[in-house]
Amino acid sequence: MSHNAFITETDIAGDESGVLDGRTVAVKDNISTEGVRTTCGSEMLSDYVPPYDATVVSRLKDAGATIVGKANMDEFGMGTTTETSAFGPVTNPVDDDRVPGGSSGGSAAAVAAGDADLALGSDTGGSIRCPAAYCGVVGIKPTYGLVSRYGLVAYANSLEQIGPIANTVADAAELLSVIAGPDENDGTTRKAGADADYASAATGDVEGLTIGVPTQLVGGRERAGDDPAEGGETRAGADEAVVEVFEDALDEYRDAGAEIVEVSLPSVEYAVAAYYVIAMSEASSNLARFDGVRYGTSGGYDGNWNEAFSDAREEGFGDEVKRRVLLGTYALSAGYHDKYYKQAQEARAWVKQDFDEAFETVDVLASPTMPMLPPELGESLDDPLQMYLADANTVPVNLANLPAISVPAGESDGLPVGLQLVGPAFGEETIIRAGSLLA
Amino acid sequence: MSEPAVDAEEVRHVADLARVTLSEDEVDAFAEQFSEVLGYFEALEDVPEVESEPELVNVMREDEVEESLSQEAALANADESEDGFFKGPRVS
C-alpha cells in the first residue's frame, strides 16, 4: 500500500457472494466499520472503534466485496487537499509532489495507485469529485437521499452523500447500484432509484444529448480575488490550462452527436459563500458531540465540564476543524444569524431554482470539476479563503442536492483534468450515460 | 465595503461558546483569517429573496422498542464509565 492512502489496513471479506465478489474496496475513514477503528482523520477519534457497520458497509459485505482499508481523509472531511489529516497527507499517485485533492483523497489515491479496485468517499461540497479529478479517476456524488448516511460520521448533514470512486464510469455505477436505496435507519433516504441498474446506463452513447455549459463556471480566472462588495466577481473562473482540456472534451461530445449550449446560472456566484456558512454552521453543531466523555480523547483534564471539554477539543481538533467550528458558531450566534445563516439559505433556494430552470432546456450541465490543476503539497494550507474558493464548481451541486459525476477529461502538463457533469435530481442514469463517453 | 474587523476578544468569545480552548497564537491567526472569510461572506447580502416551498413530509415512525446496541457496546468507547454509566467531569 502506498501514498499514505490508508489510515488502517484491513482484510474484511464479504460474508456472501454477490456482484462485487473478488473486488477490493477502500472505505473512507468517516464511514463506520464494526470492530475496525474509524478516525475521521482526527486525533480526537484516533482510538474510536464503532460498534456497528454503516449501511453502505453492510451492503458492500452483502455484495461480496473485500474491504482492504480505511482511507485517509481531511480531518472530519474538512479540506480540499487531504493535508489536514492528523495521520499525514496523502500524495497524488500521478505526481508525488502534488496533493490528491480532498477530502476523500485517500479513497481516490487508493484506486489510482491500484491498491483497491473501488472506493467509497463522501461528498459535502465536492469531496468525491475533487480527488477524482486530481487523481484521474471517476467519482460520483449521488442525489441527496439516494444513499444512506447511517453510520457516516456527520459533518454537514443537509449537504453530504456517500458515493463511489472507480477507474471507469461502469465500475463506479456498479458500486452505486450496490449502495443506493432507502434505509429505515436514515429518514432522509428516498424510494427513488432503489432498483436502478446504473452500470447498464454506461453505454457511451451521447447522441441527441443536450449539454449546458454554465458560463459562470468556466470564464477567465483573471477576475480572481476581486472584492464582491465593490462590484467585482464573487468567484474565480477556471485556469486556462484547465479550460483548454475542458473545451477539447466538449469537442468530443459534439463529434459523438451531443449538442452543446451555453446557459447562465447567476446564483452560483454566491454558492461558495452560502455553502461555507451552511457547512460550518452544521459542523459547529455536529462536532459538539466530541466531548471526550462518550467517545473522543478526554486528555484527563481537571476542572469543570466546560473547562475539561474545551481543553480536550483544543488537543483533539486540528486547525481547519477549529476554524470551521468557530466560524460556524460565529455565523449562528446572536446578532449574526440573519446576516449570514438566513442569507445563505436564501442563496441555497436561489441556486436550486437556477438549476431547475436550466434542466428545463438541457439534459446535463458540464464544467471543469476543479478550476485548477492539482496544487503542490503545502501550497494552499496557509490561506483558508483561497482553499475555499477552489470549490466554486462543485459546491452548487450540494446546495441543490443534485447528482454529479467527475470523469477524466484529459491532461495538462501530465496532470489530470476532470470534467463534471451535473444531472437533475435522481438523474444518475443520465450523468452515467454522458460520462461513459470519456471513461 | 471593508472587511469586518474581528478582534482577539471576539475570537476568544466565540471559542468560549464553541468550547474550544485556543492558544494566544491561534487567537491572533484566527482573528486575521476570520476578517477575511467573513468579509467574503458579506457578498450574501446581495442575494435576492427567492420564493421556495420545500416539500416536507413526516418521516417519523411510531415509537416502538427495537433491537439496539448493548449497554456494554455503547460504553466501549468511553474513557471512563462506572456501573453502566458514562462518567464525565463535574458540571460546575
Map the helices and strands:
The complex is a heterodimer of chains A (439) and B (92).
Chain A: E1 6-13, E2 24-28, H1 55-62, E3 66-71, H2 105-112, E4 118-123, H3 129-135, E5 138-141, E6 161-166, H4 169-179, E7 210-214, H5 240-255, E8 259-263, H6 271-286, H7 305-316, H8 319-332, H9 338-358, E9 364-368, H10 384-389, H11 395-399, E10 404-412, E11 415-422, H12 428-435
Helix pairs in contact in A: 2-3, 6-8, 6-9
Chain B: H1 8-17, H2 24-41, H3 71-75, E1 81-82, E2 85-86
Antiparallel strand pairs in B: 1-2
Helix pairs in contact in B: 1-2
Domain Amidase (chain A): 10-431
Pfam families (chain A): Amidase
Family (chain A): Belongs to the amidase family. GatA subfamily.
Give the C-alpha Rg of chain A. 20 Å
By CATH reckoning, the class of the domain at 6-206 and 368-385 and 401-435 in chain A would read Alpha Beta
- Biggest sheet character of chain A: 11 strands, mixed
Named CATH architecture of the domain at 8-45 in chain B: Orthogonal Bundle
**Percent of residues of chain B in beta strands?**
under 5%
CATH topology term of the domain at 8-45 in chain B: Histone, subunit A
| Percentage beta strand of chain A | 15-25%
Instruction: Report the top-level CATH class of the domain at 8-45 in chain B.
Output: Mainly Alpha
Q: Rg of chain B, please?
A: 23 Å
Q: What is the helix fraction of residues of chain A, given as a range?
A: 25-40%
Largest interface: A-B, 69 and 50 residues
User: Which structural class is indicated by helix and strand composition of chain B?
Assistant: mainly alpha
Order of helices and strands of chain B: HHHEE
Q: How does the overall form of chain A come out from the CA principal axes?
A: globular
CATH architecture of the domain at 6-206 and 368-385 and 401-435 in chain A: Alpha-Beta Complex
**Count of strand segments of chain A:** 11
Order of helices and strands of chain A: EEHEHEHEEHEHEHHHHEHHEEH
- The end-to-end distance of chain A, rounded to whole angstroms, is 25 Å
The mean pLDDT of chain B is 89
Keywords (chain B): ATP-binding, Ligase, Nucleotide-binding, Protein biosynthesis
Subunit structure (chain B): Heterotrimer of A, B and C subunits.
Catalytic activity (chain B): L-glutamyl-tRNA(Gln) + L-glutamine + ATP + H2O = L-glutaminyl-tRNA(Gln) + L-glutamate + ADP + phosphate + H(+); L-aspartyl-tRNA(Asn) + L-glutamine + ATP + H2O = L-asparaginyl-tRNA(Asn) + L-glutamate + ADP + phosphate + 2 H(+)
Region (Disordered) (chain B): 63-92
